[in-house]
Amino acid sequence: MSASSQHAGISITRWNAGSSPRQTDARAQLRLALDAFTDIGAQAFAERARAELAAAGQRVPRPPSGETPLLTAQETRVADLAVQGTTKAEMAAKLYISANTVDYHLRHVYQKLGVRSRRELARAYKNSPGSGLPAGAGR
Fold it and tell me: What CATH number was assigned to the domain covering residues 69-139?
């Protein structure tokens, strides 16, 4: 639903729902992709679709395994980069966020995993199967 107004001869359309038709279409496509990737067991792609849905402001369904992810999508990205030895400034540039936001996510990663350093974080990653951390990793 939209509302139009005329201002100085220019038509301005405002979207009351808070999202454009393109965003709505994108969410629909992402939901389809998430379902398809989940059905075929492509967990990495399903996680990416889940993260993109969340970024688009969509409520994201929980992973099918019934486990609640320990880290958010952004925390996982920051943790992955930290384990690879990426500096905070490089992480900020790669993720298009500020260095302060990188700090924020790293603090939460450390707190959730019960680690106090990048070395302990790397050890937790090394000891966890797959690309992500399972619940309880690092504890």
Answer: 1.10.10.10
